[in-house]
Design goal:
This protein is mainly α. The chain is built from 13 helices and 2 strands. 75% of the residues lie in helices and 2% in strands.
């Protein structure tokens, strides 16, 4: 058992790292909070240290806010749907004995380690390019006109790009859950004549419920801040402007630091509300 002396020594050793982490997080957050109550427009030479909640009111009442929020929710819901369904199917497939199983698993997990910017560039130029993309050649080979995904189906295109990145994460978590399933239950159900769909519905899926809720919680927290894929592909056009991208436009493109800071605080509050809500769901699921 750890003694009081060893516990004190451990606290002292981790104190510098905790201090740096807190400073790294708190200083930008406090500065953002400060600027959110100010009228700060550097290019116009405007700085009023206190204007109350005007920035918050302007950001929340703008027509762009509601559309950006709806786009964000649709994007998160679409990505989660693809990663959860695809992750379950891939986990079940990878759990089956096959030749080169280890190599196949590495290939499936590999996209998760690709930087979002690189992933978006690859999809934009290699697959979605209307002139030289692989999908364009496929459409031409089938006798159809090339389809411009990024301008005709921009939201779906970004959902596919981000889902491709996060699918390995969901697969890895769900594969671990599948491998922890008691094979005797499945064998008993199979011997009793239960079809494969019934075994999946009544045995496998309930067993995966905890892993699915954890995947939803972790992915949602990160997906609410999608930015790089939008910046590289559509630049926020064609109805792909999320809440995070709206904050970026207010700060850098409009050079309204106060209004953008207020949007950033609102985005942080919304993300925390959603995270707390999901954590309650996860907690109830884990207690069952």
């Amino acid at each position: 058992m750890a003694t009081a002396h060893s516990k004190s020594a451990a606290r002292i050793m981790i104190a510098p790292a905790v201090f740096v982490l807190l400073v790294w997080m708190l200083i930008p957050l406090l500065m953002t909070l400060y600027f959110s109550f100010a009228d700060y427009r550097p290019l116009r030479g405007t700085f009023d240290a206190w204007i109350g909640f005007d920035n918050y009111v302007r950001f929340l009442t703008s027509s762009s806010f509601m559309s950006a929020l709806i786009t964000t929710l649709w994007m998160v819901a679409g990505i989660l749907s693809i990663t959860i369904i695809g992750g379950v199917l891939l986990a079940l497939l990878l759990d089956q004995p096959m030749y080169g199983q280890g190599f196949v698993r590495i290939l499936v997990i590999a996209p998760f380690f690709v930087m979002p910017t690189v992933s978006a560039l690859v999809w934009k130029n290699m697959f979605f390019n209307v002139d030289n993309g692989l999908f364009s050649y496929l459409f031409k080979g089938l006798g159809f006109q090339p389809y411009d995904f990024l301008s005709q189906s921009p939201l779906l295109s970004i959902i596919v790009i981000v889902a491709w990145q996060w699918l390995p994460f969901a697969t890895l978590i769900l594969l671990t859950a599948v491998q922890s399933l008691d094979s005797e239950q499945l064998e008993a159900a199979e011997m009793d004549g239960a079809p494969a769909l019934s075994r999946f519905r009544f045995i496998i899926l309930p067993h995966l419920s905890r892993a699915i809720t954890v995947v939803i919680l972790i992915q949602t927290i990160f997906l609410l801040s999608i930015f790089a894929e939008i910046f590289v592909t559509t630049n926020g056009a064609f109805g792909t402007r999320t809440l995070t991208y709206l904050v970026y436009q207010r700060v850098l493109e409009s050079q309204n630091v106060g209004l953008g800071s207020a949007g950033g605080i609102i985005a942080v509050i919304l993300a925390n509300v959603i995270a707390i809500f999901l954590m309650r769901i996860v907690g109830k699921n884990l207690d069952n």
